[in-house]
Amino acid sequence: MKKSQRMQVLVDLAKRKEDSAAQQLARDKAKVAHDVQKLNELKEYAGQYESERNLLGLSAYLTTNYQHFVDRVQQAIIQQEAAIGRSEQQADMSMRRWLQTRSKTKSMDWLKEKNYKAELAVEAKQEQRQSDEFAMRRFLDNTR
């Protein structure tokens, strides 16, 4: 087996790792998008309740309960913002991992191509040598 063919096996393996890293990156980015959507929904929900409280004219007791509820929604917003931060960190790590695997795949592919070109050059030299040898024999046979 030629060196370029052996290298192709390594390139294929690196490509599979790169594809796996790309899939993980896509999942992590989707999680960030989902978390951001959830945060936006929570903010919208809190905004609706805040505006309704001002319109309802509630008693002091109900206003206190209402405020506790709004406070819990605000706490959920803070927690969701933290979740987004964690999701973004994970997506950043996945991006770096994917970039590393992509770089490795490209390097291996470049090396495989370099070996392939070297093999072609060696084969071309061998063919040229054989052709020269054959021509020399014909020439020598014709001169006898």
Describe the structure.
The protein is mainly α. The protein has a single domain, classed as Helix Hairpins. It is built from 2 helices and no strands. Helix 1 packs antiparallel against helix 2.
Q: How many strands, what sense, and barrel or not for the largest sheet?
A: none
| Helix/strand structural class | mainly alpha
Level-1 CATH class name: Mainly Alpha
Sum up the overall morphology in one term.
rod-shaped
By DSSP, the count of extended strands is: 0
Question: What is the fold-level CATH name, i.e. the topology?
Answer: Helix Hairpins
The number of helical runs is 2
CATH architecture: Orthogonal Bundle
Percent in strands:
under 5%
Residue share in helix: over 70%
Average pLDDT taken over every residue: 90
Topology:
Elements (H helix, E strand, L loop, with lengths): L2 H54 L3 H84 L1
Helix pairs in contact: 1-2
What descriptive keywords fit this protein?
Helix Hairpins, cilium, protein transport, 96% helix, mainly alpha, 2 helices, single chain, rod-shaped, 144 residues
Report a brief summary of the structure.
The protein has a single domain, classed as Helix Hairpins (Orthogonal Bundle), CATH 1.10.287. Helix content is 96%, strand content 0%.
